[in-house]
Amino acid sequence: MAFQHEPEQRKRSKPVDYDQLFPGRFIKAGELLGKKVTLTITDVDMEDLMGEDNKPKAKAIVAFKETEKQLVMCKTNGISLKAMFGKKLSEWLGKRVTLFPDTWNGEPCTRVWGSPDIQQDIEVEIALPRRRPFKKTMHAMGTGKANGAGKTSVLPPVPASIASLQAARNPAELDAVRESIWNGYDAAGQEVPQALLDAYEAQGEKVGQSEGLGV
User: Which domain holds residue 120?
Assistant: First the structure.
C-alpha cells in the first residue's frame, strides 16, 4: 500500500524580529536584522499611499534588482541619495545603495549608509521642516576607508560620549551625535557599549517629549 505524502510546506527562515512577523511590500528596518544591505536601484517613482489619517499622500518609491520589496523614501534618505548620485533620477538607476537599520526618536527606521559607487565619503546636511539641520556621512563602501582599513581608530571614553548624548537639545541633534559616535565604533570594528545605547534611549525619551515623531 502506497503512502500518500502530504504536500511539502515552503520552508521559511525562523523570524527573529517583530517586523518579520508581518511582511509586506515595503522594506522594514527590522527585516535588515541589524546588518547593512546593498541593493541596486532599478526604478524611482511616485505613488499615493494611505497615511495614518486614512488619506492618500504622494510618496517616493524606490525599487531594487535584488528583491521585490521596495523602499518608501523619506526626505532624509532622498537627500542622501541625491548627494551621492545627483539630482537627475535617471542617473540613480543601476547605482548601488547600502541600507542599514537605524532609529529616529526611538523608533526603528531604514536609513542610507552609503554606496560602493561613490569614490569617497560625502558629508550631507539634512534640513527638515521645523528641525535644526544636522549632518550625515555617506560612506564609500568597498574602498577600505569605510571599513577602517589601514587606520587605527581612537575611541573617546564612554563617559565623554554619554555627556555628548545628554547635551543634545532636540531629536535631530541627538541623532547627529549618535551617528558620529556609532560611526567611530563601526570604523574600529567594535560593538557600541550598552551604556551608550541606554544613554541614547534615555535622552531620546527626554528630548522627544515635546516633539512628535518624524522622518
Answer: 21-208
